[in-house]
Amino acid sequence: MKTFAEGSALWFSLVHKESLNFIGFCCINLLEAKNRDARLGITIASEFWGKGYGTEATRFTVNHAFRYFGLQRISLDVTEGNARARAVYAKLGFKVEGRKRRGNWVDGHWEDIIYMGVLDDEWTEMYPKH
Fold first, then answer.
1. Are strands 73-79 and 95-106 parallel, antiparallel or unpaired?
2. Please, which of 15, 36, 60, 109 could form a disulfide with 72 given CB 3.0 to 4.6 Å?
3. What is the pLDDT of residue 69?
4. Nearest one of 88, 84, 63 to 74, comparing CA atoms
């Protein structure tokens, strides 16, 4: 990854395969060229939750980032109460790296923010054909 790309972002629009309706987006933010590090962001419209779209989109985006950008690490954060997303990220190989206590006010209460990450060699071990 070149230094000029640092601070850049790559966005993927997510569309339903049959209807071609917009269902969400994924983003890779290139944080540090020297460290080959990036952050993942993903949003899926609520009517499409629980149907595997988030898993598929996350897998595609992370794989693309490792394969074509030569990254060595991808991180993300997720609120403590978002158990579905945390399960998806764990299933895909992300590991909990830290926690920001009371980091987000949600529906009248505080929730911790969970920081997760995956390394390129961990990803390749789980998905050798990608």
1. unpaired
2. 36
3. 87
4. 63
The beta-strand segments (E) located in 1-130 are: 9-15, 22-32, 37-44, 73-79, 95-106, 109-119
> Bridge partners of 14?
24
**pLDDT by residue, tens only, the chain of 130 residues:** 455 566 688 898 999 989 999 999 999 998 887 899 999 999 999 999 999 999 999 999 999 999 988 899 999 999 999 999 999 999 999 999 999 999 999 999 999 999 999 999 999 999 987 6
> What is the CA 58 to chain-centroid distance, rounded?
6
Question: Which residue is listed with tokens 């071990």?
Answer: 125
* CA 98 vs CA 45, 62, 78, 84, 107: distances in Å: 27, 20, 11, 18, 23
Task: Give this prediction's pTM.
Answer: 0.88
Q: By CB neighbour count within 10 A (0-12 exposed, 13-18 middle, 19+ buried), where does 86 fall?
A: middle
Residue 88 CA to residue 107 CA, distance in Å, equals 23
